[in-house]
Specification:
Helix Hairpins; rod-shaped; 3 domains; alpha+beta; Heat Shock Protein 90
Length: about 475
């Protein structure tokens, strides 16, 4: 017997709703910390201001209501007194001559204005006409009967005359209480909000400025390990963070310096035994073995020199200055073409603006471009540089060749030190697998990067980005 599978776990609908709500909130909220802080503070202040002004407006409404109650009760009492003291035949004439305030109407009728089905008048509303004053007067001035009701926000009160004849119907139109519809309320709210917004924006920008300074300092340290330290000033927390950042930067500089000195010492120590081995190999009688040993020793020496070049701190020691990137590209292409006298001029062509000024380290950038051009020339036979004008704060540069390209899964692996793809590259082309890693290190030190991709028409393209 088979049982139907039981459902496990709650439905995903609430989770999807929460995910959509978070995504919507991320789209609505500003991106910067200062803007978010200012927005939250402004919303909180607006809520507090609205509550305070509302309380003030309600208090004012209570005062106005009390004043209205006093005025209306006095008017109703005076109106009733005039009707009672007047001769029954002249009551209508007397009523027509009485000037009533806005919102108060009165008439003499044979029937009360209060009808069946009307809502009973609440005590707070009924207090506006103060019926206890009339009921507490002399017997000859007391109404024989009082009826009250409400309909659509209008108060109907009917007083039966002492003689038992007509009814004095008083109609009080009660305007709705709208404390927020006051012009004073709106103007005060807008002025207070505008003043608070200016103060909040100024304060949040000032409070978050250390965060922006820390981000700029970290970006500068990523480009230049010898970047100037952050000023250790301001509030205690800011000064502590700046001190910690400066300590970290000093440790990084010390680590880089120690690594460079260590590799330089290793390289110096390795050159001596390599030289001795070369001298001993020259005295070998077997020509074939001598040639193989000398080739291995030359390869070892090339690897030592390349390793020292890879670890050398040239980019950190060289100052950053304005330079013409277009002229630098043309110079690198000319030097690559001169090293290959049998190549065509079209094989080392430049396309782009005549002049494009950027800020960087000339020797380091030239070395990075030379490595990319040499890589294209060695393995693709050509090296064409395409430089694009700045767009979106970025400069894009392409180094293209007509070689076999690189498999897509290996295009990132070639940036690892000493990584060579034997399927498409061999030792005879020169190099030990450090040209691309050195180029990427230099470009990343400038705030840029380099990636590889195969061209649809064939060949490899090295795409370089640099900050404008």
């Amino acid at each position: 017997m088979c049982w139907p599978p039981m459902s496990s776990g709650p439905p995903d609908a609430p989770r999807q709703v929460r995910a959509r709500a978070r995504a919507l909130l991320r789209r609505i909220l500003p991106r910067t910390l200062a803007a978010r802080t200012a927005l939250f503070l402004l919303l909180a202040l607006m809520a507090v201001q609205a509550a305070g002004l509302t309380i003030h407006a309600l208090d004012r409404v209570d005062l106005q209501r009390a004043a209205t109650e006093r005025e209306m009760s006095a008017r109703v009492f005076g109106l009733w007194r005039a009707m009672v003291l007047a001769v029954p035949e002249r009551r209508g004439l007397v009523l027509s001559e009485i000037e009533l305030p806005t919102g108060l109407d009165a008439s003499l009728d044979d029937q009360p204005a209060v009808r069946v089905g009307m809502l009973p008048a609440p005590p707070p509303v009924l207090r506006m006409i103060r019926p206890e004053i009339l009921l507490g007067g002399p017997p000859r001035l007391r109404p024989r009967e009082i009826q009250a009701g409400m309909r659509f926000g209008t108060l109907y009160v009917s007083f039966r005359m002492p003689d038992g004849g007509q009814w004095l119907n008083v109609i009080l139109h009660m305007p709705p209480l709208r404390p927020w519809h006051s012009e004073t309320f709106l103007i005060a709210f807008l002025l207070m909000t505008a003043a608070a917004a200016l103060l909040i924006v100024w304060a949040t920008r000032r409070l978050t400025r250390p965060v922006r300074d820390l981000a700029r300092a970290a970006n500068a340290l990523g480009r230049d390990v010898n970047a100037p330290p952050m000023p250790e000033e301001g509030p205690f927390e800011v000064a502590t963070a700046a001190h910690a950042f400066n300590t970290m930067a000093e440790r990084i500089r010390r680590f880089v310096g120690d690594r460079t000195q260590m590799l330089a010492a290793i390289g110096h120590d390795l050159r001596t035994p390599i030289t001795r081995l070369k001298l001993r190999a020259e005295f070998m009688e077997d020509d074939e073995q001598r040639a193989k040993m000398l080739a291995d020793l030359e390869e070892m020496e090339a690897m030592v020199n390349a390793t020292l070049a890879f670890a050398r701190d040239d980019a950190a020691a060289e100052p950053s200055v304005p330079l013409d990137l277009a002229a630098l590209c043309r110079t690198v292409l000319d030097e690559a073409a001169d090293a290959r006298p049998h190549a065509d001029a079209e094989d080392f062509a430049y396309a782009g603006p005549e002049r494009l000024t950027v800020r960087g380290r000339p020797i380091a950038l030239k070395r990075a471009l030379a490595n990319l051009v040499a890589n294209a020339a060695n393995y693709g036979g050509t090296a064409r540089v395409v430089l694009s004008p700045p767009q979106g704060g970025q400069i894009h540069l392409r180094v293209e060749d007509d070689g076999p390209g690189i498999p897509e899964e290996s295009q990132e692996a070639v940036f690892q030190p000493f990584r060579r793809l034997e399927a498409s590259r061999n030792r005879e082309t020169g190099g030990v697998g450090l040209g691309l890693p050195i180029a990427r290190n230099i470009l990343r030190a400038h705030g840029g990067d380099v990636t590889l991709r195969n061209r649809p028409e064939g060949g490899l393209c090295a795409e370089v980005t640099l900050p404008a």
